[in-house]
Batch of 2 targets.
Target 1
Amino acid sequence: MTRREEIKEHIKNFLKEYFSSRSKFIPGETKIPLSAPSYGWEETYDAFESLLATSVTMGEKVREFERRFADYIGVKNSVMVNSGSSANLLALSVLTNPTTEQRIKANDEIITPAVTWSTTIFPIINVGATPVLVDVDLKTYNVDVDQIEEAITNKTRAIMPVHLLGNPCDMKRIMEIAEDHDFFVIEDACEAHGAEFNGRKVGSFGHLSTFSFFFSHHISTIEGGMVLTDNDEYAELLRSLRAHGWVRELKTREKIARRYDGIDDRFLFINIGFNVRPTEIQGGFGIHQIKKLDKFIEIRRENAKYWTKELQEFREYLLLPTERQNIKHVWFGYPITVKPTAPFNREDLTKYLEAKLIETRPIMAGNMAEQPVMNLFKHREIGDLRNSRTIMRRSFFFGNHHAIGPKEREYVVHCIREFMQNKVKQAFMR
């Protein structure tokens, strides 16, 4: 063994030792965060090897992760990018590109839920289309399918459902509406890795779908995203748009190059493009992370099942999430809505939990229609968005991830129970 190999072996052993040690959870002293690192020594050592080999730009590790993720979701093509935000932008850029048949054009409308994250809405505006915001179901936080039908006009060209917090939308009805009207469907599954509707993974229904591998998601490449499609032509366009519009990563590279003799095919540009490529470090992370995904999902589902059961005694005051029939919820977080009849408000409860070191946050960006940015751009709102407005003011979620075990989840229930006893007691004493 060479000296370099010895050094690498020492580093590997140090990393194994470092990641094998985990701080003990102490109720009231240890924070329960919204997210926790999902990577270990394998990902860290893989990144180290890439750096030493100077193989850091997009290459074989990215391609391997793309293949594995496509197989996992059950889709033919998977194209990795540098973030879930870029994934949404790239997917919509395919559908608005001049080479796409019956493409979405300027001022065409795309229906999407009002309760989502900003990077569902912003790429719609970025590509020149008009977002149409519809209300959500208060029990699922997902798009109200009846509202989709009400939102349709002669300008509607696409539906962009969001599987919010890992809870699958009603893809049967959404796809039926889309097929009846010849609409595109772009699934925003950025928070729903491994979620299923009728036994089929979300991200496999739409013409295109997107996922995020940001630090806080089910699996992480720190930053990273993926666009999936069964359409081979869309996949080729995705690969070109991802990197400057050139042909380097295309399967049809040689065929295209023959048509443009005299132009070096390393620098042959056939379309407009971005630079949203991932790195080999991200690809290496993904290869290791996807092996852990099902185990991570199992932990999240067990946590959610426990909380829903234990918090039922407070259903008079709290609207708790449920898992519908024929779906597999993967619980990006655990959401709660404080009912108007409660003798306390959302802020009372979240401040109490935060004081107990249980981190909380609003449901994504809340009702995007109320965000001041929407005053700057053309959009439509369907109805009064009543449920979205309620979620903006009364809903929140706390962390649910692989690092939360029985002690942590029991402590969460203990704190909520303690809060409830104090608040309800105060209400009766008035």
Target 2
Amino acid sequence: MPDSLSDAVIDIEHVCPRCHARLALPDLQAALPCPSCGRQFRAVQGVISCLIDEPVNPWQSFFEGRSQADDRDTSAANDYRTALQQRYMIEAFHRACGPVANEARLLDAGCGNGLFWAALFGKPNVIGVDYSLGMCLLARARGMRVYHADVSALPFDDGQFDLIYSSEILQCVTMPSPLMAEMARVCRPGGRIVVSTLNRNSILRRAMRQVRRILPDSAAPADTAAIQRSAAELAAIGRGCSLSVRSVWWVHFPLPWLRRTASEHYPLEPMASNMVIEFVKATPPSPNAP
């Protein structure tokens, strides 16, 4: 299946993620230096590697290890506790993303092994990005066009994607603002960005944090932990990137409840385990506007 993938399916302009010089990455067959800063790019089994710095953070090594594990082709490799948890998150993204035209340009930011994409869209107009090369190769094997890159330093020119979605990667970064700003950069004006993360105000998650203080999770990176945030915090970060909240979908795992609000305010927020926030990128005013 990977051999049938074509860059012509979705036409994208590429830039160096370090200096933003234009690049001809679709034609990459061997190492390619950036004409401006000299950064080298390469192709690995059909995956273009555009990572600027390694390691990005301890989670990168964690997911690289998961991509080599016996269960690498399951939801567990994407750090979901159960397949049911991933299914609930996919349903929330189905609701938040809504129907999308076949000609729309979509970006899966933090695509993992491609299982999420396959269940959510599974179409060739979606491009995947992940900082684990092993995960990229797994997603590629599923038929996804994918780049080995950091979501905080994307190899794409400004304003190219109609929809960017990102499931559960915000808890793996200490500074979410650069990541959100980078997604906003490559999103077209009027386009949407849909992100999910752990709800810091969840009663369930507070209880789990207490349990993990007593019984640490040996599977997670030893020198870091999943960072939990509130919907209000992410909404404020979004506003700093010219993004406004259109809707928030509240996931109540392990219960099958999914609730929608038009803002980050929700009376039952302590009952929600995760939230999926739909942002819209502002459209610049017309130069001829009064």
